[in-house]
Amino acid sequence: AIISDVSYVDYCWRIVLGCGAIPGIAALYFRLTIPETPRYTMDVEHDVNKATSDVANYLQKTDTIDDNDGPGNHVGVPKASWSDFTSYFGKWKNGKVLLGTSMSWFALDIAFYGIGLNNGIILSAIGYADTHDADFNLRAYNSLKNMALGNIIITIMGTVPGYWVTVAFVDKWGRKPIQIMGFIVLTVLFIVMGAAFNPLKEHSIPAFIVLFTLLQVF
């Protein structure tokens, strides 16, 4: 009976995962049904008439122009090729932009997912993972409840404020300065937490939580 009760947790995470797919399906529907931009129509589909019609419809906010009135005027725009790619990005002034962007994104993923994958360790360190209830069902319930509360606390204290601080100041500070500042602070915080992880966890949980929250912010 105990195993049967706890097994319902399996249905819970499937329902949660399924609900998370609903916004994605809605976004996919709207993306597939909206008209393409005139630039896409002209540069990719090479249909000048349809691109002109799309621009007119957008500016006039009417559907008076039919896209199917007459054959499309297709233009011979050269197709992109690997030789174009290598010749363009083979120049250092162009290649350094692609390299810097991709490496910055790579470094961001290491920091972001590195923190996220260690949430369980963090929650355990601050007492929001393990339970010691004698009843098996109660222990399973409290464990899930504690993990949910702990993740909510982490998100509200760190992730959400970090997003909104960036939204508020990114245009004033500039995108490059805000990114460099974030990487520098993350480097310092990772070094501190990596070097003093056990002492912080054993002797100063408040300091531990503050540092981890700052990681989420930056």
UniProtKB/TrEMBL annotation:
InterPro entries: MFS_dom (IPR020846), MFS_sugar_transport-like (IPR005828), MFS_trans_sf (IPR036259), Sugar_transporter_CS (IPR005829). It is found in: Membrane. It is a multi-pass membrane protein. Residues 1-218 form the Major facilitator superfamily (MFS) profile domain. It comes from Rhizophagus irregularis. Keywords: Membrane, Transmembrane, Transmembrane helix. Its main location: membrane. This is Phosphate transporter. GO terms for molecular function: transmembrane transporter activity. One of its GO terms (cellular component) is membrane. The chain crosses the membrane at residues 13-32, 106-128, 148-170, 177-197. Gene3D superfamilies: MFS general substrate transporter like domains.
